[in-house]
């Protein structure tokens, strides 16, 4: 029995519908879950394509070297999988040896690692919070005598310049046009020498830590306003 034209149209329409109507329950993925599924599907697709390429190359070589057996696709999948595991083990051993030979020289940045820059040792988290509290106290006092405004730059005559020196090297960064006590914009943040996660002083007086990528995005959004 051949499907009617109406049935085909209905099938195409149902496949194209992006969400249900009439109060029906709709189950959707979060942005994070969707991104992970996209990454996994791309990895799986690449894995299957590489296995097909390996099978093709192997069988071409088998025509020249008759001692080589013909390779089936499932066997090619196994070869690629085992080879990937071997590479993973080798890279893990290299990373371990690198850390043993240069202990403490590497710091985490996002999903990877980078060489820790030379200079003063990074203070602990509590000391970093206390340093920001000290800066907050000075800025809030400054704002009381300047119509609620933060200093236009770190180097004003009413504030000791040494206050802006970060113990791990570099200077604290001051965001422009942010009023103390108003909103939750970033007012002060640590320099890049603080590592992959930096503490920030928000306009409402709270101190939080931010991953480097998240902080960069937030700062860009503030500057665009």
UniProtKB/TrEMBL annotation:
The chain crosses the membrane at residues 39-61, 73-94. Keywords: Membrane, Signal, Transmembrane, Transmembrane helix. The keyword Transmembrane helix applies. Residues 1-20 form the signal peptide. It comes from the Bacteria. This is Type II secretion system protein GspG C-terminal domain-containing protein. It comes from Luteolibacter yonseiensis.
């Amino acid at each position: 029995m051949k499907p009617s034209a109406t049935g085909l149209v209905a099938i195409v329409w149902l496949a194209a519908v992006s969400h249900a109507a009439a109060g029906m329950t709709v189950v959707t993925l979060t942005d994070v879950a969707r991104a992970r599924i996209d990454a996994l599907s791309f990895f799986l697709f690449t894995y299957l394509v590489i296995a097909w390429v390996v099978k093709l190359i192997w069988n071409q070589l088998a025509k020249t070297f008759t001692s080589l057996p013909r390779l089936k696709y499932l066997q090619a999948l196994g070869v690629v999988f085992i080879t990937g595991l071997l590479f993973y083990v080798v890279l893990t051993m290299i990373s371990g040896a690198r850390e043993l030979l240069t202990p403490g020289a590497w710091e985490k940045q996002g999903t990877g690692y980078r060489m820790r820059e030379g200079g003063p040792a990074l203070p602990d988290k509590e000391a970093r919070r206390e340093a920001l509290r000290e800066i907050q106290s000075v800025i809030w006092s400054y704002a009381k005598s300047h119509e609620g405004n933060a200093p236009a730059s770190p180097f004003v005559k009413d504030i000791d310049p040494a206050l802006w020196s970060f113990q791990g090297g570099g200077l604290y960064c001051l965001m422009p046009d942010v009023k103390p006590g108003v909103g939750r914009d970033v007012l002060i943040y640590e320099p890049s020498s603080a590592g992959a996660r930096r503490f920030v002083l928000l306009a409402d007086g709270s101190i939080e830590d931010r991953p480097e990528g998240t902080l960069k995005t937030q700062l860009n959004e503030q500057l665009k306003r």
